[in-house]
Automatic annotation (TrEMBL):
This is DYW domain-containing protein. It comes from Panicum virgatum (Blackwell switchgrass). Signal peptide: none annotated. GO terms for molecular function: RNA binding; zinc ion binding. PROSITE patterns: PPR. PPR repeats lie at residues 136-170, 247-281.
Length: 558
């Protein structure tokens, strides 16, 4: 796009238009068109909005008097945000700064915060927010959403707390709560989510629009998503069942929540009710949820049937996610040849996730070194940032075959190439605060008590007959004793120890992991749930595990 700044270099400072700074009639018509194009949320019309802004503010403008820039800039910034057009957005920011509109003019500044968030730059968005002289509720909402929408959930919650403490005059609205619910869902922060839900009912329910808020499909969908992602699937189902109106996203969220919690039959029954009794037409996202349910339950035949129905009955062209689910269903069931046939029949290029699924299945099924090495080579041939994950899986294949020299070779290769295993962490919420642990963490204020509890847990596990699965620690240790000690310091064990120290008796311990739970930690979590008579709910990268009375909801199939 031609430079926006060059064509607006002679813009006078605002206000322009009428004597009170409002647009003239001609400028108002141009402004309405600009806003309509920006709000259409279509790439072609957003491009036209930016071109119109350039035309309006050229000198002299062929379109007549231009609207004042503090009216037109927010619309242009909205178009740039929709396109994630960072270069054009920076030009608009420079223009706003030149005209003393950023960060002084709140509406323009809010639009810039949204722009940087949409371009994946939450740090710049929040830095700009901090410079707004008098941030409004919209300013705070935009900044909180900038962090939550870019995955920095804990920072979003911290900013929300800051608003509540520092600006008690600002009452949260539905937009605030929706962003906070999303952040709580991402962080697995159930108690904060319950607080946000109560806030929604208390502060918005009493207002004139309270009834409308309670019927708001988007907010109810956010609540279903929140409770589903925080391990409270029963609460998610309660919200879903009480919704006065549902859209397709409502059904998708509930079907997926049930699937991720291992309630496979409930998930598939809900899908059947959705399509047969409610006559809701599923989309591609629905079938990702359905195939995920089949995957979590090891339902090979049902997976084949739903995949075929997706294509033949609903005319949905399979995406890489559907193929990935189908390959995983077959490979984990030991049908690796059939899974390879699915890959051969794909009408898109397999990604590294598919090859890693096959490699993982080869590892778990002891499919043989030759096939495993072939899968690893195919995964490494696909450009991807997760190369280290392939090496870790291959190292486990070698470890299972007791080929420790090859394990060492993989470790040296990773070191020489600069590859690092993705660092794992586990977080647990307690009394409204989220506590995060990494392997061997000693930074927590309660570290001494946590490790004392960990020693007690280890003694009771050993008394119960526990023996560590040393194949889960080949990349970080050599001697068996060292490997066992390394496993003992996995982040989820520190989180469990912290939970046993601090959780209310009878309350479940809820843990969020950024990686898949390893076999050894899965085993000890089952034992701890029985020894300490506690329910442990772990959300890993793939699904939920509900450990209770010595067993897991996944039925040891994950």
């Amino acid at each position: 796009m031609p430079s926006l700044a060059a064509s607006t270099s002679s813009l006078p400072a605002p206000p322009r238009g009428g004597s009170d700074g409002s647009p003239t009639a001609t400028a108002r018509s141009s402004l309405n068109l600009l806003r309509s194009l920006a709000r259409a949320r279509r790439a072609d019309l957003s491009h036209r909005a930016l071109l119109l802004f350039r035309t309006l503010h050229s000198s002299p403008s062929p379109s007549g008097p231009a609207p004042p820039p503090h009216f037109s800039l927010p619309a242009a910034l909205s178009a740039a945000a929709f396109l994630a057009a960072l270069p054009e957005g920076r030009q608009l920011h420079a223009l706003a700064a030149k005209l003393a509109l950023a960060p002084a003019h709140t509406v323009v500044a809010n639009s810039l915060v949204h722009l940087y968030a949409s371009c994946g730059l939450p740090g710049e968005a929040v830095a700009l927010f901090r410079r707004i002289p008098g941030p409004t509720l919209v300013s705070w909402n935009t900044a909180v959403d900038a962090l939550a929408g870019n995955g920095d959930h804990l920072a979003a919650l911290d900013l929300f707390r800051e608003m509540r403490r520092g600006r008690p005059d600002l009452a949260p609205d539905a937009y605030t709560v929706q962003s906070v619910l999303g952040a709580c869902a991402g962080a697995g922060a159930l108690s904060l989510g319950l607080y946000a839900h109560a806030l929604l009912l208390r502060e918005l329910g009493a207002a004139a629009a309270g009834a409308a808020v309670s019927r708001d499909v988007l907010i109810n969908n956010s609540l279903v998503d929140l409770y589903g992602k925080c391990g409270a699937v029963k609460l998610a189902r309660q919200v879903f069942d009480r919704m006065p109106a549902r859209d397709l996203a409502s059904w998708n969220a509930m079907v997926l929540a049930l699937a991720n919690h291992g309630r496979v039959r409930d998930s598939l029954d809900l899908f059947d009710r959705m399509t047969r009794a409610e006559n809701v037409v599923p989309n591609a996202i629905t079938f990702v949820a359905v195939l995920s349910a089949c995957n979590h339950g090891g339902l090979v035949e049902e997976g084949r049937r739903y995949f075929a129905a997706m294509v033949s009955e609903y005319g949905i062209r399979p995406r890489i996610e559907h193929y990935g689910c189908m390959v995983d269903i077959l490979a984990r069931a030991g049908l690796i040849e059939e899974a390879l046939d699915v890959v051969a029949g794909m009408d898109c290029r397999p990604d590294s996730i598919i090859w890693r699924s096959l490699l993982d299945a080869c590892c778990k099924r002891n499919a043989g070194l030759e096939l495993s090495e072939a899968m690893a080579k195919l995964a490494l041939d696909v450009p991807d940032d997760a190369v280290s994950g392939v090496y870790v899986l291959l190292s486990r294949v070698y470890a299972s075959a007791q080929r420790w020299n090859d394990v060492g070779m993989i470790r040296r290769l990773m070191s020489e190439e600069g590859f690092k295993k993705e660092p794992g962490f586990s977080s647990i919420e307690m009394a409204g605060s989220v506590h995060q642990f990494v392997a061997g963490d000693t930074s927590h204020p309660q570290s001494e008590e946590i490790y004392e509890k960990l020693d007690e847990i280890q003694q009771r596990l050993t008394s119960a007959g526990y023996k560590p699965d040393l194949s889960e620690a080949p990349m970080v240790a050599d001697a068996d004793r060292t490997k066992g000690a390394t496993l003992r310091l996995h982040s989820e064990r520190l989180a469990i120890s912290f939970g046993l120290l601090n959780a209310t008796h009878g309350a479940p311990i809820r843990i969020l992991k950024n990686l898949r739970v390893c076999k050894d930690c899965h085993t000890i979590s089952k034992l701890i749930s029985k020894i300490y008579d506690v329910e442990i709910i772990v959300r890993d990268r793939i699904r939920f595990h509900h450990f209770k009375d010595g067993s897991c909801s996944c039925k040891d199939y994950w």
